[in-house]
Amino acid sequence: MHPAPPRLLIANRGEIARRVLRSARARGCRVAVVSTAADRGAPVRDEADRVFEVPGFLDGDAIVAAATGWDAGLLHPGYGFLSESASFAAAVEAAGIAFVGPTAESMRRLGDKEAARRTAVAAGVPVLPSLGVDALASEPDPAAAVERAGVGFPCAVKAAAGGGGIGIRVVRRPGALAEALSVAASEARGAFGDDRVYVERWLDRPRHVEIQVLGDGRGAGIHLGERECSVQRRRQKLLEWAPGFGISADLRARMGEAALRLVIASRYRGAGTVEFLLEPDGTFHFLEVNTRLQVEHPVTEEIYGVDLVDAQLEIASGVWPAALPAPVSRAESFEPLSPRGTAFEARIVAESPRNGFAPSPGRLRRYREPEAEGVRVDSGVVEGSPVPPGFDSLLAKVIASGESHAAAAARLASALEGTVIHGVETNASLMVSVLRHPDLLGERVHAGWLEERIGEVAASRLPPDVMALLEREGVADAVAAAAARRRTTAGADVFRSLGQAEELPRVEPGRREGEVTLSGSPVRDAGAGEMLRVTATPLAGGRELAVTVAGETLVLPLAAEGGKVARGQDSGEVRAPLAGQVIRILDAGSSVGEGDVVAVIESMKMHWEIRAPVGGILADIGAKAGDAVAAGAPLLKVSHPP
After folding, report:
1. What is the C-alpha separation between 112 and 119, in angstroms, rounded?
2. Catalytic residues
3. Pairing status of strand 155-159 against strand 197-201
4. How far apart are CA 548 and CA 204, in angstroms?
5. What's the gap between Cα 110 and its chain centre?
6. Cα–Cα distances in angstroms (integers) from residue 597 to residues 34, 355, 438, 574, 576, in the given order
7. Predicted confidence (pLDDT) per residue in 299-308, tens digit
8. pLDDT band at 164 (very low <50, low <70, confident <90, very high)
């Protein structure tokens, strides 16, 4: 009789759940996932052998109960949620299930950011000055304590149990520290179930470089070189690549040795990442250890030819992967592997770069991934998938490989131009601009670069004449008709019937669903050549049309929409700019100035501040803390003072 296939429960969602499922299936595992009512449209639910609906992804008791009830032998936590919870890891193993990750003990030493700093200091790894959780909790004047500890300003408030840039607030003056401590603690509690925070010196323009490590759980391990993650917004990564820019073999060996010292000291088991801040002179400082798989792990897989999820599952089963070098117990004795080629990864997230990176939940009305040689897509969605406001904004990761950084970046930019996502706003066009920017190709980026350049790189890449052509009256309606294969225009005659005298393009259906071509002299005059290809999708009940051309997406009004009701700043009306949960809102009668924060909404694990459009007195409060609100819902009105 053949043994029963191993059973794996994935305690996560989105693209990482699908990624783990893929490798587990290749190993012959039966795979179950936990999910929630809010995620019922997620494709991984259809792909798994079994789905266990739980109250939430932070409900460890319900997840362990599902795993034991299904007789799972392995549990993979993915990243985020409970992936770095030592108590959850302990509960999983106490139930007789192998946790795909480090032991609870090594997680406490490394996954907790403050404890990791102490371990790093003991291992001789350089760290930045900080003020710990306990010192902050007992200090009546945190700002003064920050100065006394040698941290100074600017400093960063960080979640002790966190990762992924969540729960980080940069503070540049003493008077702003108290609010930053409160907001960071709230974000950390919502994301990790742990509101402890600490303060660390902040470097404004370092590079962010991390080392991929794996340990055998017995005091030995290896590393697989570095990844660079220096293109970020709100301290969260958007673009990663491997190897890092200009990292010499000597620097790679020194950073790798420092990372391995932490692996060996903590008897680390499985895959993890040791993160460093790198200064221009080659000085590096320990930042944190992520005791889990990283979002950006595919770039390491591409240049070293490994499957890190498969390696995680093998180590969790008690076997060191044959595809990896033998682990060493002395960090200085490890001979780093040489990377083969380069790889870039762009995170495609549901947010609006031109609106302060505001989250953009909704439903994917059209979703088309790129298909090209040397391009890989790890996604958590399909066409029609909901994008709920209660989860983070990551939709997919697009990875491209090449012989050089320039070749891989160009391949990834081209792939993103072939990506179509309608129904939510995304950063895809922004990432094309970043990948083609001379600062990236000239290796001149740092962790603050994107926010310094956001006005430039978030600007539309479409030539103004092409934009003007698409925005002409009647063009959007003709494109919508052609996309639905209802009508091909006969040129100028159709548009004259709409009351227009000038010649407009011929508009006709393309080869693929939703694809439309525009041709004729107006297209040539706009500098678009003989033919302009667009992909179009009606939105908002047919009142708007999403149009994508060369990776740039516009939302155009349709004639059926009629006149829009003006809600200008002069009205004083404040509406929710996005769907989410109200965290704070001021009371009626409060006096505010123009630009003051009047409400805070949490959406996709981010806090979004709503500011008064004018000064005055608050009235007509339409929500309270804890309420879920839809995009466009009325929140309050600012009445001009008498």
Report:
1. 10
2. 292
3. antiparallel
4. 36
5. 23
6. 37, 16, 37, 11, 13
7. 999 999 999 9
8. low
